[in-house]
Every structure is written in structure tokens, then in C-alpha cells.
Amino acid sequence: MVSTSIPLTPVKLTTKDFKSDQEVRWCPGCGDYAILAAVQSFMPELGIARENTVFVSGIGCSSRFPYYMNTYGMHSIHGRAPAIATGLSASRPDLSVWVVTGDGDALSIGGNHLIHALRRNVNLKILLFNNRIYGLTKGQYSPTSEIGKITKSTPVGSADSPFNPLSLALGAEATFVARTIDSDRKHLQSVLRAAAEHQGSAFVEIYQNCNIFNDGAFDLIKDADTRDEHLIRLEHGQPITFGNEQQYAVVHPEGSFGLQVQPGGTPIVHDATVDDPAYAFALSRLSGSDLNTTPIGVFRNVARPTYDDVVQKQLSDAKAQATGTPEQMLGELLSAGDTWTIL
Amino acid sequence: MAAPVKPVEQLDRVVIRFAGDSGDGMQLTGDRFTSETAQLGNDISTLPNFPAEIRAPAGTLPGVSSFQVHFADYDILTPGDSPNVLVAMNPAALKANLADLPAGADIIVNTDEFTKRNLVKVGYSVSPLEDGSLDQWAVHPVGLTSMTVAALADSGLSKKDAERAKNMFALGLLSWMYSRPYESTLRFLERKFAKRPELVAANKTAFTAGWNFGETTEDFSVRYEVKPAKMLPGNYRNITGNAALALGLVAAGVRAKLPVFLGAYPITPASDILHELSKHKKFGVTTMQAEDEIAAIGAALGASYGGALGITTTSGPGVALKGETISLAIALELPLVIVDVQRAGPSTGMPTKTEQADLNMALYGRHGEAPLAVIAPKSPSDCFHAAIEAARIALTYRTPVILLSDNYVANGSEPWLLPEVSELPDISVAYATEPNGEDGRFLPYLRDPETMARPWAIPGTPGLEHRIGGLEKADKTGDISYDPANHDFMVRTRQARIENIPVPDVEVEDPDENARVLVLGWGSTYGPIGAACRALRQRGLPVAQAHLRHLAPLPANLGSVLKAYDKIVIPEMNLGQLAHVIRARYLVDAIPFNQVSGLPFTAATLENMLEDVVKNG
User: Fold this and answer.
1) With an 8 Å Cβ cutoff, are A87 and B263 in contact?
2) DSSP per residue, B328-361
3) If you ran DSSP here, which 8-state letter would residue A126 be given?
4) Distance between CA B390 and CA B311 in Å, rounded?
5) Max Cα separation, chain B?
6) How close A191 comes to chain B (CA, Å)?
């Protein structure tokens, strides 16, 4: 159920309705195509009026996304999409506002705006396309590149540790945090659906393949012969197990702060609604640069008042107490305090 | 308080400076004296001067905070060059302000603070009260602290708390000296300390003790009166520039019939606008304290995109950070008001001191050809009208507008003739509601032939779904375009649509009608320039004054105005930024006159300079 303040479409929309007339100009084979197709085909089922849907992006390959959606859209500047979208969403509760961003856009130049949007719990759906590389600037390492990454700007290897985007979002106490993969349309759409239905900031990391500058970055969890050994599919209310024969369990060892993978152990049961972000944070720590144990799905989905609702309520409360027309109130405001009259 | 028994002398104008430690409450004391003076109907102009530190070390020169009030029985233009009266609450306040005092001025000193320790702190080896160094002034030694404490002996307050009321004792004394009505101050104390009745009583007692001291002591033999000024009839209030600017933005929202969205990050000296606007939610004003300056303007731009009047308020360092988003707003052609309350730079500079050195940044401080409209208020109350004008241009022409206030007008105050709401301009504009192209197509960059504004098609409008962005856009369709001819056309179009904004002609004040010298100014120098011009004319030296509100685009008649005079002088609180513009654009050999001390020009400084130009060419 999407927010009640957003108008639903009176007519049934189709995938085609969400395709703009612009030629899509990503590199052939880019993972962005799969995400675009998944979003375009998933939007109709939300039932939101097309004109009340807005995509806001920053800069980078992923940020061309709004041009291809036949909704309202703004391709803004590097890193600032969450800030711009915050102003839009907070002032227009009737809009479904989506932010499309990348690992450089959201985590490097725009890191501050991202964490503050999540902290405020602005009603934004933030899709972070993580390809672990700078694509549009032609192949420099990104804040999610593995340490030691050799690129044009780091010929002997990058020296800095990467962000774990989900850990970062959870550190900011995001109320909805999920991860999915570009090539798994079914999973991608199920995560997007849950994100759309969430009231407040929904942060979705999408592993996305850049076949030009970082091809195969996620093969370990994509290839049919390896993925089952490394991919942990989180299902709310289900024990967390994985492996060809579900032989691995995610367990909570006694006396430990975190979670561990243990063959044949007693798995914990996934509960995305745990209020303490420490649980989802512990889940997020299972995955590292090597993708050896990588959970996907909804890590955290909790309810907290949204920034938008609080702002709107302050406005409506103040207006409810107001008497007179705006012009009358303005006249009173201007002549408030110590005044005097010259005859 | 008994009726006056001492002789009363009439004065036409007085300048008083209250000076003390930054914790002594001098700003409050000055504010109250100003309010009493306004009630009386004098014309007023005030100038606060305080350190950036909240509490600099007590008793030191950097910790001195002062408030100057100029009041008169005629209309005045500045807070006054030099005080007739200095109230010095400690040796630091005396030392820091002595150089500004003309011979014969009254100095009221709080002798209780002239201890050995306090004297040494500011480098006095001997008390200036005792070594004859103050002989050219009329010194009134008063034990402000001890008399306040004595008056409050029965109040039950600790000595420390009692001492804090000494500013009210000083205010009471000055209120007696200048025959100010005190009822509003007593009411104010009741409001301010509503939750602490013992403090209401103590402050009232201290105020009354100060008043009665004036009445009885032989040190003050005369009281003074300054008759009300002849001002335009109407209702007035005293207002600072920041308050007037905030009210102007509220009024702009009402007159545009739009919600107002302010994105702001706290910064001196602009934060008071955020504080004021946050109180006016019933007008549909949303204020967001953003995580940084960039987010502040980003959120405002997002709100503008959604159909609100988007505003961001800041000072110079913040404008520097906002530059890229301002460029985006120029490319998107959306309304946006950027308020820059200028302070002394570069970098952190002097945050509580004034300067006009952001003009170049406002005009040119962006990448690419990125023109926008720039306007500046000339006085505290003018900030109200300038704010509405900024919003009008932003909305009508779908452009970012930079409003260049500065610390001098922002924190200075003057009487404000309250406008009738119905007489404020209607600045409402219409959103796009229908497709404007063939076959029901919507063309987001198809322009209004008159305003050159593109349609404001806000999300939620069916049939007008479109995408905009920072990439260059094809004319009319707004589609991404790398076409060379299109880019050349769009760059020229963006320039033309700013240059074509009609702005009022600049008016020339030349009452003698034979001046050969024109003084051209902009922004907060209006008062000092005007006062200097008046003084010269009274001495038989004709001089003309023109003042620019619109700095981009410039008024259409400016070129012909400039060419009508032999000499053009441009005083600015920068190193000649407007002068550069004028020289480059009109090929006029304008004479820059510059001061970048962090303080406003005094009228005397400008009068001396202009006298030289008028007499010697």
C-alpha cells in the first residue's frame, strides 16, 4: 500500500506508458538496461498516477535514468539528488519521489546528503546502482571498489577501504534497507515493491554490472554454478540458510556482537522489523568486498514518522489555529510589536 | 518617577553609543532605548557592533560590544558618524570607542569596573579617569554596578544576579537624560521575564534607580529633549533589515499565493532570517535547516520545481558553496531567491562586520555563461520591498535572483512606515496546465514571447510529464542536445532573458539641478552617501546622487544618466566592483572610492572625499 496522500491512477497503466520517447544511451550490455526494464514494468502495478511520480537523479551513468521514464524527472547535479528530492517531497506529499544514484554519486560526492535524507526519514525511494567503479568518467575506482583496485587513477592499487553501503545506511538508521541484483528481475521487483510500500526513506542497493570498466564484478553471486554457495536470500520470518543444500546457517554465537556463517548451525529467523538497527547492521557485515557471503533482500523495514509528515503536520496545525485571510494575517504580522502613529 | 525639576534643553539630534562587555547586555539596552525613542516619534537609525565570539574573555578589547543609536527631529539617513554620548561599562569599552568621540562629548563611565585588574587587561597603567587624559570630554563617573546592587539589596537576588541588572540602571539614567517614555520598557521587562517575576521586579527597580539617580545627582544638571520628526503620516515600527527581509518573504508568499519553502544553513549574519521565517508556518512557510549550504539550496530548488517559492538565505561563504546549484537553477529556468547577507571576507573573514565584496560573485561567480538577476536593498526597511521584488522577478521570469543585503542593513534598524497589504504588488503567476505543442505535446522550453519565461509545469499535472536537467537542452523541446548551433542559441537566450527583464529607471536626486558630479552607489551605502550629499548641498556645493537597486540587469537609462555628468564617483565597501562594471559597460571614467574596514562609511568620510571632487574635479 503506497502512501494515502499520493493519488492513484484512474486508468490502468502499462509498461509502455512509462517509457519516454528518448533513445536510451547506456553502453550495450550495461546492467542499467535490466534495471530500467524492471522499473518500467513494475511501476504500473503500484497504481500511482504517472504525473505524480518523479525521478530525481544526480550525475553518473545511472543518473541518466529519469530521461527514460515517462514521468516527471530531474537530472540534477553530482551528489545532490537527495537534497533536491527532500525539498520536493517535503513540500509535495502527493508525489511519489524516487532518487536514482550511483556509488560515486551517493557515497562520495553526495555522501552527506544521503545520510541526512536517511536520518530524516524523508519519503524517498533511493535506488543506488552500485557497480563499484566510476563509469561516466571512464574507469576510476569508486568508494565501493575493493581495496587495492587497479584503475586509471590507481595504477598500483587503491589505498582506501570501501564503504559497505548498507552498513552506512543502517548507521544513519534508515528505516528501510535492502539489496538486490540487476540480473534477477523477480527479486529486483519484489524489493522495489516493498520499497515503494514503505513510508519513509527506502534505501535499495542494486548490484549492477559495468561491462566496460568493471565487468564481472558480481559474477560470484550471479553465475549459476557459484551463486548458491555465496548468496544469502533473506526472507522475512524464514530461517537464514544458504548453500546448494541449505547447509550453511547464519547464526548468532553466544557472547558475540555479530552474526556468523556456520555449516549446520541453528539459523536465526530473519525479522526485518527489529527496531534496533544493530540486527540489520550485523547482517550487513556478513558481506564484504569478496562477496563470499552476500545477503540480498530486505534487511530492515521499520516504521518511524517521516520528515514529510512531521513538516506537513506542523504546517496544518499552524494553519488550523489561524484566523482570517492570509492578507489579514499579513497585515497583523507587519504591525506586530511596538508601533506608533504619525498623524 | 517624579516630574522633571531640572532645566530642559532642546536638541535636534543626538548620537548615543552604549558599549560594554559582550555579556553586559548592550544590544538589549540599545534596542530598548531605540524602542522608547521610536515611541516618541523621532527619526532613528541604529548600528550594532559586536564580536563574532559569543562570550569573548571578559573585560578585553575583543570582547567589546556596542550599540549606536542616532535620533533626531528630522529625517536622518545614517546611525551617525560619532557619538555625542558614550556609555562605557568598563575600561575596555572606553578604550575601544574613545577614538570615535568628538571633543566635548559626554562619557558616562561605570567606575566600579575601573579596577586595577581591568585596567591592566586593556593596557592602562594609570586609570584614564585620574590622569587627565579625558579632559577634552565631559566625563560622568557613575558607580553603575554598586548603585544597582544597592538598589537591589532587598530583592533577595544574589550579588551576581543583581549586578546583571546594571544595564537597566544605565538605560534608566539615559532615558531620564533624554526624556524618553519608559512604559514600553517596563512592559518589555514583564514579557521577557514572564517566568521569573523576581527578575521583572529587579530590572524595573534598577531602571527606576537609574532614572531617579539622573533626577537627583548634581552631575547631570540638564535634561534634553528631541522633538518628534516630521515624518510621513502613518503607522510605524522600528525594524532591522533581517526582520524586514523575512517579513518581505512572507509577504511575497501571500502576494504570490504560493507556499514558501526556505532551505537554510545557519550562518552569521543571515541566521535571523531563518529564525524569523520559522515562526510563520500559518502562512504556509516551511523552513528546513539543511545539513549544509548545498543541501539548503538544493531543497529550495526541489521545492521550486514542485511549485513553491523556493528561497535560500546565507552569507558569502554559503553562496560560494551554492554556486553549482545556482547554475542548475539557471539551466532549469526555475524561480529561486538566494539571499546573501554579505559580511567581510575572504574565507571566514570577519563574520559580524559588513562589506559589499560579494557583488562580483553574485554577477559572475559561476561556471559557464550563467546570468541571473541581482538586486540590493538600500536600508533596513527597504529589505522588505527588495525581498518582494526579488520574488517577483524570480517568479515572473523563472530565474534565480540574488538579493545582496549586508551586515550593516541586516542588523541596523530604522522606523518603517508600514505598508498596506492591499498596496503590495500582486506577484502571482500561473502554472502550466495544458500541452503547448502540436499533437498535445508538451514543450518545456517553449517561451512566453513577452517574458521569455518557460512554462512552470509542476509534477502532478497530467499530460505535462517531462524531464529536465543540467545537460544542455534543445530549444523548445528541452531534449538533451549537443548541437553546436543550439548551444550557442541557448547561451545567448539565457543571457537575453535576463537582460530583457524590465527594471525601473534609476532616479537621480539633484535638487540644485546644476550638479556636475554624480555619486553612484548600490546597496547599504545609500544612507551615508545621502547624508554626505545633503551636507555638501547645505554648504552650497551641488552634487547629484543616484542609487542602484537593480545590479543585473542594470536600468535602461543608466548610460544616459552617467553621460550627463562630468564626474562619476562610486563609493563602495569593496575594491571597486561596481566601478569595474560601470567602466567596462559604459566606457565611463568613473572614480572608485573604497573602504573595506568592515565598518560602513561615515558621512564625514564621504563628504570630505566628495568635496575634493566637486571643488577640484
Assistant:
1) yes
2) HHHHHT--EEEEEEE-B-STT-BTTS---TTHHH
3) E
4) 10
5) 92
6) 25
The confidence score (pLDDT) of residue B54 equals 76
Residue of B nearest to A337 (CA): B237
Please give the Cα distance from B540 to B526 (Å, whole number). 21
> Which residues in chain A touch residue B286, judged by CB atoms under 8 angstroms apart?
90-91, 311, 315
User: In angstroms, rounded to a whole number, what is the distance separating the alpha carbons of residues B154 and B74?
Assistant: 44
Q: Report the alpha-carbon distance of residue B534 to residue B607 in Å, rounded.
A: 9
- Tell me the pairing of strands A248-251 and A260-263: antiparallel
Residue A1: what pLDDT?
55
Instruction: Provide the whole-model pTM.
Output: 0.95
> Residue B276 is placed in which grid cell?
524569523
Residue from B33, B282, B381, B482 to probe the interface with A (highest A Cβ count within 10 Å)? B282
Closest-CA distance, B529 to chain A, in angstroms, reads: 27
**Predicted local distance difference test score (pLDDT) of residue B55:** 76
Q: What is the DSSP letter of A179?
A: E
What angle in degrees, to the nearest 10, is found between the helix axes of B526-538 and B603-616? 50
Question: Residue A322 is which amino acid?
Answer: A
The residue type of B130 is E
Helix axis angle, B166-177 to B183-192, nearest 10°: 160
Residues of B in contact with A73 (CB under 8 A): 466-469
* Per-residue pLDDT at A96: 97
- The list of chain A residues with pLDDT below 50 reads none
Q: What local confidence, expressed as pLDDT, does residue A3 receive?
A: 67
DSSP string, A265-298: --PPBP-TT-SSHHHHHHHHTT--TT-SSEEEEE
Q: How far is B460 from chain A (nearest CA, A)?
A: 5
* SS3 assignment, position A57: strand
**Helix pair angle (B316-332, B293-305), 10° resolution:** 30
Q: How far apart are the first and last CA of chain A?
A: 63
**What residues in A contact B184, CB-CB < 8 Å?**
338
The set of cell numbers assigned to B43 is 527619526
First-to-last C-alpha distance (Å) of chain B: 57
Q: Which of A19, A21, A77 to mutate: most B Cβ within 10 Å?
A: A77
3-state secondary structure (DSSP) of residue B585: helix
Do B480 and A342 lie within an 8 Å CB cutoff?
no
pLDDT at A305: 97
- Residue B23 has a pLDDT of 86
Instruction: Determine the 3-state secondary structure of B409 from DSSP.
Output: helix
CA B300, CA B310: separation in Å to the nearest integer? Answer: 4
Placement of cell 565598518 in the chain: B599
Residues of chain B with Cβ-Cβ distance to A84 below 8 Å are 298-299, 301-302, 305
C-alpha cell at A26: 547506456
Instruction: Residue B227: count other Cβ atoms within 10 Å of its Cβ.
Output: 14
* DSSP conformation letters of B194-218: TT-HHHHHHHHHHHHHHHHHHHH-T
State whether ipTM is beyond 0.95. yes
Per-residue confidence (pLDDT) for residue B53, from 0 to 100: 79
Which regions of chain B are under pLDDT 50?
3
CA–CA separation, A43 and A39 (whole Å): 6
Q: State the amino acid at position A169 in one-letter form.
A: A
Residue B557's identity, in one-letter code, is: N
DSSP H or E segment with residue B174: helix B166-177
pLDDT of residue A38: 96
pLDDT at A246: 96
